[in-house]
Amino acid sequence: MPRMDSFVEYTVELLEPLGPVQARSMFGGWGLYFGGRMFGLIIQGQLYLKTDDVTRPAFEAEGCRPFIYQSRGKEQPMSYWTPPTDAEDDGRRLLPWARRAVEASNRAAMKKAAKKAPAAKKKPAAKKKPVRRS
Predict the structure, then answer these.
(1) How many other β-carbons are positioned within 10 Å of the β-carbon of residue 59?
(2) Residue 82 in contact with residue 47, Cβ under 8 Å?
(3) How far apart are CA 124 and CA 60, in angstroms?
(4) Per-residue pLDDT band at 113 (split at 50, 70, 90)
(5) Which domain holds residue 83?
(6) Structural domain total, the chain
(7) Beta-ladder partners of 33
(8) Nearest-5° angle of CA 100, CA 105, CA 109?
(9) What is the pTM of this model?
(10) In degrees rounded to 5, what are phi and psi of residue 18?
(11) Per-residue DSSP letter, 60
(12) Does 132 map to a domain?
């Protein structure tokens, strides 16, 4: 496993008030996890936080930018956005944005679980009566 660089270590320290945050190496960057769910991404020295339809407007209003990658010659935006500039180096200001990211991550997991759940539970098969032999 690659050794964390100083920016990843620093970011994890800033997020300590959130609770136990883990950083895992992935795709040339780092995934940030809380409670087993990814809520953040660090790539090329930039922190991105998970957003959804509920939280994205707040990120947009603060002038934050989405993480965009190139795939097959097209730009593909992801649901991870930079925190506001004034929160990037201030743990106190970063904390509410990180909480929003954790909440978005939890909502995404709940949506995914709901899609996997069967639409209607099937009735259990009727038990056959044992045959009596005389």
Answers:
(1) 23
(2) yes
(3) 49
(4) confident
(5) 6-116
(6) 1
(7) 22, 38
(8) 145
(9) 0.81
(10) -70, -35
(11) H
(12) no
